[in-house]
Each structure stands twice: as C-alpha cells, then as structure tokens.
Amino acid sequence: MKPIVLGIASAFFFAFTFVLNRSMELSGGHWIWSASLRYFFMVPLLLLLVAGRKNLKPLFEEMKQQPGAWLLWSTIGFGLFYAPICFAAAFSPGWLIAGTWLVTIVSGSLLSPLFFETRNGERVRGRIPVKGMLMSIIILAGVAVMQLEHAKTLGMKEFLFGVIPVLIATFAYPLGNRKMMDVAGGRLDTFQRVLGMTIASLPFWIGLSLYGAVTTDLPSKSQLFQSAGVAISSGVIATVLFFMATDIVRGDMTKMAAVEATQSIEILFALGGEVLFLATPLPSALSWAGIALVVAGMALHSFSASILPGKKKKSMVQEQA
C-alpha cells in the first residue's frame, strides 16, 4: 500500500507541471525555457539534499564507472520526457496533456520484456503484465474519449502537436528510469539517482538552451519564477516520491504497473489547478465521462496488483520502472 500512497502523492506534485507550463505558455513564455530551466534549478536543490546526506562522493564514483550509460539513459528519461511535454503545452490545455500522459501506464508495461526479474530463484526476462494491461484498456478508453472531444475544436496540426510529443514522453520516462535503476544496481538511494540523472542530462538542456537563445526571446522574470516552482514541486518532490515508490517494488512488474497507474490521478489535480488558477472552462460532459473511465481504470489497476503479492512473492532485481 505504501508505494501506491507515494505514487498518488507524486501525482499531486507532478500536476503542478501541467498547470504551470500552461500558465507560462499563455503568458508568452517559450517552451524551451519552461523545459530547460526546470532542470537548471533542480541541480543546486538536489546538490544540497545529497550533500547534506553526505552521499555526493559515492554518486560521482558510480557515475564515473559508466558515464556513457548515465548520459544516454538520463537524456532519454529526462530530456525526451520533459521537452516534448513542454512543447505540447503550446497546443493543448494542461489537464488534457495530463490525460494523454496516462498512456505511460501502458507504455511502461510494454517495456517489461526489455528487462529481467527473478522468478523462483532464476533471472528471467520480464513479461507484460496481461491482467494489468486489461485494466489499462479502461484508462486508454478514457483518454481516447477526452482526446476525441478536444479534437473537434482543433485543427489536425494542433491536435497532433498536442498528442504525439506526449506519446513519445510516455515511453521515454519509464525507459530511462528503469534503465538507470539497472545501471545503478541498487547502489544509490533515490536522491542520488535523481541528482545523477539531472546532472547527466545537462548537456541536452544546455544544447536546447543555446538553440533557444538564438531563436527566441530570453525568459521573463515570471517564467523564471514559475520554472523554479516546477523544479521544486515536480522536479524534486514529485520525482523523488515517484522514484521512492518504484524503488520499493523494483523487480516486480505487476506492482510496478500499479505504481505507474497511480499517475492517472494527475488529470484531476491538473484540471482542478487550471480551473482555480487559470480560469480554464470545465470539461464537457463527454470529457467528464472520459475522466471517470480513467479514474476507474486506475483504481482497478491498483487493486488488481495489490491482491497478487500475497499469493506470490517475487525477488528483488536490479531493474525497475
């Protein structure tokens, strides 16, 4: 139950990402700065946290062992996750992006065969959790209903640019997270892993920022302030909570899918935030039906996973989602 609670708590703080990114977009802030500034602000915050726990040296020693792997999977897990999310904010409201993001529940499950877990004392390739996938169909149905309703008011270009980038992000985030867990092999705690991935993704963010500096205006004070808010709420608090949850269930693909399913609750938090702070109109009745399907699917997904562990215990493995 603890991983589920942590997952829901992380969803609350992750929701600030969608609300603040939409706010910055509406006020004229460019998506490049919304994306890169978050990670620039995260570095000093995480350095203080890890240094305060006297864990910096072990982290840097670990990163020196496989610098290429750190660079690759951190860029995928953070860069190809967050840049597309910010790009999509120019074309869709935050709550709808949060809804599309829920496809990550299915994406993460589909990635299971790329990793190994231990069953009956043997290290075997992971299997797609079929039961969880069946529950995910309900969630996907809800996402489809919401997107179809939204598509009626948009052109094809706007619709695709608000959806395709988010779909890319749904695969990049769990893939980068799981691969980095495999690389770290349980030798680092959550704070160290988040800091290490943030540092390793900096070349991507620096390159993106240099491109932004020559193609668009520099960020305003308002965008700097809101980006700092995203860095604290989503980049540090939410990411750490989510990684803690996935660390607990590392090696159990069924539990992992349940933890990832908790992120579906983000849509409610994001919707509430946009209605309260951005005066976003309430969704139509059809969209509410889609939201209801999403929440119902998440509840069933988490419940189905929570009743399995007692029947069959699985060993811990050096990978995760």
TrEMBL record:
The keyword Membrane applies. It comes from the Bacteria. The keyword Nucleus does not apply. The chain crosses the membrane at residues 31-50, 70-90, 96-116, 128-148, 154-173, 194-212, 224-245, 257-279, 285-308. Pfam families: EmrE (PF13536). Keywords: Membrane, Transmembrane, Transmembrane helix. This is Multidrug resistance efflux transporter family protein. It comes from Neobacillus piezotolerans.
